[in-house]
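Deliverable D4.2, example record:
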Amino acid sequence: MNRDLTIGRPESVLWRFCLPLFGSVIFQQMYNIADSLVAGNYIGEHALAAVGNSYEITLVFIAFAFGCNIGCSVITSQLFGAKRIQEMKTAVSTSLIATAVLCGLLMLGGLLLSEKLLLLIHTPAELMADSQLYLNIYIWGLPFMFFYNIANGIFSALGDSRTPFIFLACSSVANILMDILFVAQLQMGVAGVAWATFICQGISAVLAMAVVLKRMKNVAPEVKAPLFSGKLLGRIALIAIPSILQQSFISVGNIMIQGMINSFGAGVMAGYSAAIKLNNLVITSFTTLGNGISNFTAQNYGAGKTDRIREGFKAGWKLIWLLCIPFMILYFVFGRQLTGFFMKEASEDALSSGLRFLRIVTPFYLIVSLKLVSDGILRGTGAMKQFMTGTLTDLILRVVLAFFLSGTALGSVGIWCSWPIGWSVACAISVAFCVTGPWFRKKS
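Output generated by the structure prediction step:
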């Protein structure tokens, strides 16, 4: 069901809209967590390390899908808020066409360069075969991931956060069952983990796109819209490209950091692989809530209701911190046990590495979550230069500090310490840009 986010009490509207998004991202992260759990428990520590190793490269592809989602979603939200239905429909079809072309190019490049990318991050020889197998199957499933993300962005732009939640809940549960079937029962190894994800993402993507096309047809059916617009593609690109660059730079930075981690051996790699899955569950949750704030902001920005943007910032801050604190306590207190869930026979090196990572980064979830709320406001208003400044500051600091600190007596712990420093500086920058923007100035 479509929902106008420009009416009603901002805090209530935002909470009702964002909570299903939070549920959606929990189920979405279950894909990756299920893969690691099954690989670590039914195949072994090396399989977990291989899946985690490939995961850092898959984040590059996810960055492009995320950018397409944000570009389509923000512009569609602004046009929906301004009640410009014909342009909104054209923005949706333009996004779908551009996404198909981009996805095809990425598949071609990924399949040709998968081995080189794995060598680039210093993948150990004993992990290369499994890492490349998992990565190649993942690349064949890119169309499903891309079009599901576009569908999700369109639902969110129209104020509907419940429909993607239902799709993700069903597909995530199915993915867990298929992981167990393919790996535990059929003994398909790492390939079984990858194929389970491929099949479940494929089904959810097809169903989501079918609903989107029907939804577009039913929105003002008397309004006929062109299928493609170069002008709208330009507007979408102005939002999408910085978002893609943001996520790509972060992914490239993570790949560089993964290369540093790989030099510490399979035990540290496995511990990091387990801990980073837990960490990404939280960070992706915050990012998704930030995307919801972007949609809320974009609709109200398009409608010229900037006073609601200020209220949305306060409400988003309360919401994200309320969800943040339980994760902080859970990870800090039970980090060792949670890390151990990913490995059937975990080495002490792996468990200790995962626990140290979680103990260092979790106290700073309050900081990074506030940054992501501010980022949501900046994206929704189209302030992409400011948005990129904060993001790139975080990335550069984390990579540079990880490089220098890992070479000291701190070793791998030095890498873990780079996270909170980058988050803290970037948060100060993003919040400053957010609260000094014209959308925060009260009308006289």
